[in-house]
Amino acid sequence: MKNTQKRLVIFILVVLITTLSLSSIVAASTTTYPLLKYGSRGTAVVRLQKALIAQGYLRGSVDGVYGSMTKSSVIKFQTAKRIQIDGIAGNKTQTLLYAQTAQTTSRSATTTAAADLYWLSRIIHAEAEAEPYLGKVAVGNVVLNRVKSSAFPNTIKGVIFEYYQGIPQFSPVADGTIYNTPSATSIQAAKDALAGQRPVGAATYFFNPDKSAGTWIVRNKTFVKTIGDHDFYQ
User: Fold this and answer.
1) Using only C-alpha atoms, what is the Rg of the chain?
2) What is the dihedral of CA 210, 147, 170, 134, to 10 degrees?
3) How much is the pTM?
4) Which of 154, 168, 169, 190 would suit a FRET pair with 63, their CA atoms being 20 to 30 Å apart?
5) Is domain 31-89 annotated with CATH 1.10.10.60?
6) CATH code of domain 114-233
7) C-alpha triplet 47, 53, 59: angle, nearest 5°
8) d(C-alpha 225, C-alpha 144), whole Å
9) What is the 3-state secondary structure of 2-71?
10) Which pLDDT score, from 0 to 100, does residue 29 have?
11) Do residues 234 and 204 touch, judged by C-beta distance below 8 A?
C-alpha cells in the first residue's frame, strides 16, 4: 500500500514538473506585441508598416505614424486572414503578419540565390569555358565586383545584361551563348565566387588581348593580373 502511494506521489510530481517546464517554454517562445492603432507612433509602427508593404497590403512610405492608410491596410490583412476586423494591430494580427513576412523573406532569399547561381554560372561558362579553373572563378569575381559597385547594376542578371550605347557589355549576350547550359566546373566556379573567392581582387573589367585591343580599359584602368587568356583590370 505504501509503495503504491509513493509511486502515485512520484507520478504526480513528474506530471507537475513537466507541465511547469512546458509552460515556461511556451511562455518564453511567445512574443507579446504592443497594441497599435490609429494615432500610434514610433518604431513599432515602422516595423508594422514595413511588414504590410512587404506583403503588399500597404502602398506608401514608412513614416512611423499609424494613420488612415495604415489602418486600411491592417483591415485588408485582417480580412484576408479571416480574423477580427477592427483596423487595430493587436497581438494576433502582428503575430500572423510577422510570421508570414518571415516566410516570404525566406522564400525570396532562396529564389534570389538560385537565380544568382543560374546566371553567374552561365556567364562564367560562356566567357571562360576554355579557361583554367581559377580564370573561371575570376570572371565570377569581376561580375560580383560590378554588382557591388555603384557604377553598375546591383544584381548579377542586371550586370550581365547591361547595355552601353546600345551594345551589351558581355559578348555572350550578343551572340546568345549566355543561354548555353554551363558545365559542372562552371557551376562550381560560380559557387566559389559567390562564397567569397576573389582571385582578381577588386577587378571590374577583363578581356582577351588576342581577340580585343581593350583600348579604353588599358588607358583608363589599372592592370591586376593575367589568368589564362584574360587580362584583368580594376
Assistant:
1) 28
2) 40
3) 0.58
4) 154
5) no
6) 1.10.10.2520
7) 125
8) 17
9) HHHHHHHHHHHHHHHHHHHHHHHHHHHHCCCCCCECCCCECHHHHHHHHHHHHCCCCCCCCCCECCHHHH
10) 45
11) yes
User: Looking at this protein, which amino acid is placed at residue 178?
Assistant: I
- Give the mean model confidence (pLDDT) for residues 209-215: 92
Identity at 191, one-letter amino acid code:
K
CA dist., res. 113 & res. 122, Å (int):
14
Residue 210 CB partners (closer than 8 Å, separation 6+): 229
Task: Tell me which DSSP letter residue 84 carries.
Answer: -
Which residue has 525566406 as its cell numbers? 106
Region(s) of the chain under CATH 1.10.10.2520? 114-233
Span 79-105, pLDDT tens digits: 999 999 999 999 999 999 999 888 877
**What gap in Å lies between CA 203 and CA 225, rounded to an integer?**
9
CA 58 to chain centre: 21
Mean pLDDT (the chain) is 88
- Type of residue found at 104: T
